[in-house]
Amino acid sequence: MNPAGGGRTRSMDSSNDTREGYLELNGVRTWYDIHGEGEPVVLLHGGLSDSRESTGNLARLSDAFRVYRYDRRAHGRTPDPDGPLSIRALTDDLVAFLRKVVDGPANLVGYSAGGPVALQVAIEAPDLVYRLVLISTAYEASGMLVTPDPDGQPPPAIVDMYGEVSPDGAGHFPVVLRKVAEGMAAGPWPTEADLAGVRSRTLVMASDDDIVSLEHTIALYRAIPDAELAIVPGTSHVLTLEKPELCTRLVRDFLTNDRGVLIMPIRR
Question: How much is the mean pLDDT over the chain?
Answer without folding.
Answer: 92
